[in-house]
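Residues pack. Consider this:
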Amino acid sequence: MAAKAKPAKTGVLGRTLEQMLDALPPGERARVEARSTELHAEVEGLKAGGSFSGEYRPEPRGQAACCP
């Protein structure tokens, strides 16, 4: 017996980024895209300067950066 096809997802988690952006009003989409461009540029600048490795390095136990 063949399996039934699953219905298309309609919830927020079933959408692509492009679908989410398409659903925004034009002004809001422009604002989101501008901020995204700023953040990407910041990450690239940090990568170029060596300040961002892209790896998660937790603090050793008992030595939080905020509390000496």
Remarks:
- The chain has a mean pLDDT of 77.
- The helical segments are 17-22, 26-49.
